[in-house]
Hints:
10 helices
Amino acid sequence: MRVLLTGWASFARGEATAGDVLSLRAVSDVLTQAGVDHLTVWSPAFRPEGPHLAEAEPDAFTHVVFACGPLRGTQLRELHQRYAHCRRLAIGVSVPDPADPAVTGFDLVLPRDDGDACAADLSLAAWLEAPPVVGVLLAPDQPEYGADRRHDTVHATLAEWLRDLDCGRVPLDTRLATDDWRHCATPDQFVSTLSRMDVLVSTRLHGLALGLKAGIPVLAVDPVAHGGKVTAQAHALRWPAVLPADAARADLDKWFDWCCSAEARARAAAEHPFPGPLAELVGALKGMP
């Protein structure tokens, strides 16, 4: 017996969702524990390195297992046609129409839900790692810095680096709004959101300041050549994890690792300097003619 393990994350025109991939992981683990030889295939758009469905020759398999998602559509019917000689089983799937050829093409269906029966989703059986959750807060163009602006280059470097980083990424924006649920309505809500992150990566001054106010380590990158207000604020707060606009990936890796450390967490949670100008405000007002 050799099983080809497939799902919607296997199709060239499908998509890989967290639930689908965890379901495939759960099924793969069960097959591995039972000593069943199998191969999980992936969409080229999701995992370019493969293995891919198009490369899985039908003669190399005796069984096809399809895990998770709805049983519908031409891609499933094509799967039945390509692997017609294999025994085909669907598990943990939704069955909106039992008469659909995408359903009837299987020799056996173990449904998640079919209008009558219901079962817990396969993803609940899968193991999980715990990568850090990283907030990402990027500055706007900031025309006030003129020719020293390096925002596009810095943000492109960060985008490529973040893509390869093993972490949960959460895009954030300091802009508040009372008419759009995608934005916080108060600064209190925003800082509370920041406090749920493990690390914040930011090219904004207020990303640095509010991240530390929330007690989380901040990897700050100044998008201004020669240093702008991000660098100045890092110096004022005596925060070491600030990088220049031309920082290399090795620098990002080094300081990200530090930001994930207990030392960085303790330093971020410590008391930060009081804004000096506030202490001078009232005296300055009274001293004005």
